[in-house]
Design a protein that fits this description.
Low-confidence stretches: none
InterPro entries: Kinase-like_dom_sf (IPR011009), Prot_kinase_dom (IPR000719), Protein_kinase_ATP_BS (IPR017441), Ser/Thr_kinase_AS (IPR008271)
Binding site for ATP: 45
Structural class: alpha+beta
Family: Belongs to the protein kinase superfamily. CAMK Ser/Thr protein kinase family.
Strand content: 15-25%
Domain Protein kinase: 16-273
Bound molecules: adenosine-5'-diphosphate, magnesium ion
CATH class of the largest domain: Mainly Alpha
Number of strands: 12
EC number: 2.7.11.1
CATH topology of the largest domain: Transferase(Phosphotransferase), domain 1
Helix content: 25-40%
CATH architecture of the largest domain: Orthogonal Bundle
Largest sheet: 5 strands, antiparallel
Number of domains: 2
Shape: globular
Length: 277
Amino acid sequence: MSKTAAGKKLLHDLGYRLGQTLGEGSYSKVKAATSNKYKGPLAIKVVDRRRASPDFVHKFLPRELSILQMIRHPNIVRVFEFIEVCNGKLYIVMEAASTDLLQLVQQLGKLPCVPEARDIFAQIVGAVRYLHDRNLVHRDLKCENVLLTADGRRAKLTDFGFSKEANGYPDLSTTYCGSAAYASPEVLLGIPYDAKKYDMWSLGVVLYVMVTGCMPFDDTHIHSMPRRQKKGVLYPEGLPSLPEPCRALIAQLLQFSPASRPGVGQVAKNSWLKGDI
Ligand SMILES: Nc1ncnc2c1ncn2[C@@H]1O[C@H](COP(=O)(O)OP(=O)(O)O)[C@@H](O)[C@H]1O
Ligand SMILES: [Mg+2]
């Protein structure tokens, strides 16, 4: 029996049935699944250690697994089980979502600022607050990593592949991670960075993308991105005007200087986000 067939048989023996592919990354594939053990639709992230880089296998994957086991929050994807197979495959069994935030934005062009974008963003902020309060950082916050329920109303953060524990303060990170389009100037410049403030920048990009349907900074020429980021964010011409408190929040998050960006606790108290104004 081939190794792939052996993996499939093991999953089958454990009561899982794999369905269509929901998403694909560099070293993993996410498949729809059902099981006779858990009710409701499941998703199984299949990670192939044999095809992955040594850094991924020895550094990032162990962190992803240990952090996933530590966390439980209504706006973070729930993981039920990890299955290790001796053929190098690892299966992460989790609850399934219907779509992700990138797909939703692409489908609708952009999201109505209030209540849709605001309500989804408030949930993402809740999840990041939970992490930062426990000294965990995500470092790959982007629309593709925010899953959504079928009605598009409940958001669940996923993909802890670059997450880590930030021990003490200041604990500066040096690893370049995430996607350039969501990366802060200090990360792009290769300066040791405060990973929580990096997450705050990426949150600003996520909010901007939701309400405009565009990326705030074009990442075709990465070397010139920090210069453009320093000038401040621009909005596409002809975009219907956004509520001032929403623009103000984006501007705060996309501050060039990490020290000037608010912490997640402060953002959680933002009156526009809470629906007070
Ligand atoms: N639980 C899930 N339910 C539905 N779709 C998912 C789920 N997990 C991941 N996906 C889809 O698969 C994609 C890749 O998953 P992710 O965990 O982000 O892997 P990678 O580390 O390869 O980026 C996501 O962007 C999303 O579209
Ligand atoms: Mg991802």
